[in-house]
Design a protein that fits this description.
- The chain is of the alpha/beta class and 179 residues long.
- The protein has a single domain, classed as NAD(P)-binding Rossmann-like Domain (Rossmann fold), CATH 3.40.50.
- The chain has four helices and four strands.
- It has a four-stranded parallel sheet, with helices on both faces.
- Helix 1 packs parallel to helix 2 and helix 3 packs parallel to helix 4.
- The chain starts with 14 loop residues before the first strand and ends in a 28-residue tail after the last helix.
Length: 179
């Protein structure tokens, strides 16, 4: 049997952002990074007193509390990643406070009441298509843009990764500090 490798506190002093840390993969990744010692910014739209529009009870506040209860450092920050203004403010806050950002995970979900029940393609209601693309795709572009700007000066840029996309399918971007 292979020896289990310990990552306990291997990220101490590092700062991580987990976009979409409310539930599912994002919550799990945030907790794992917290266990490894990183300071975690848990972002999402669902906060205590203002739950998910689709009736899910989980919040980013709960995720941050779980990390803190396990001895980690976590900050819950309500951010709608489809709003470039809110994403810009988040990255400014992180850099102003920590002067660095080492890890970014984008786990913003595409689930939304706009999707309606699953069905056949030919029965799809496209009235909400723009909103679905904004939430599922544009939010990732906005977050990646600001992550690159925050991480490139320190050459911390790595392969973009989303829990919904296998890491083996991701090409490493070129990183340049020139304009």
């Amino acid at each position: 049997m292979a020896k289990k490798r310990s990552f306990q506190k291997s990220l101490r002093g590092r700062v991580a952002l987990v976009a979409g840390a409310t539930r599912g993969a994002g919550r799990g990744i945030a907790r794992a990074l917290g266990e490894a010692g990183a300071t975690i910014y848990c972002t999402g739209r669902s906060v205590t007193g203002k739950p998910s529009p689709y009736g899910r009870p989980e919040t980013i506040d709960e995720t941050a509390s779980m990390i803190k209860a396990a001895g980690g450092i976590a900050i819950a920050a309500r951010v709608d990643h489809t709003s470039e203004r809110e994403v810009t403010a988040l990255f400014r806050r992180i850099l102003r406070t920590h002067h660095r950002l080492d890890v970014v995970v984008d786990s913003v979900a595409g689930e939304d009441p706009l999707l309606k029940p699953h069905g056949f393609l030919w029965q799809t209601d496209l009235r909400n298509a723009d909103a679905m693309f904004r939430q599922g795709l544009t939010s990732r572009i906005i977050t990646a843009k600001h992550a690159a700007r925050a991480m490139m000066p320190a050459k911390r840029m790595a392969s973009p990764f989303s829990p919904s996309r296998p890491a083996s399918s991701v090409r490493k971007p070129r990183c340049s500090t020139s304009g």
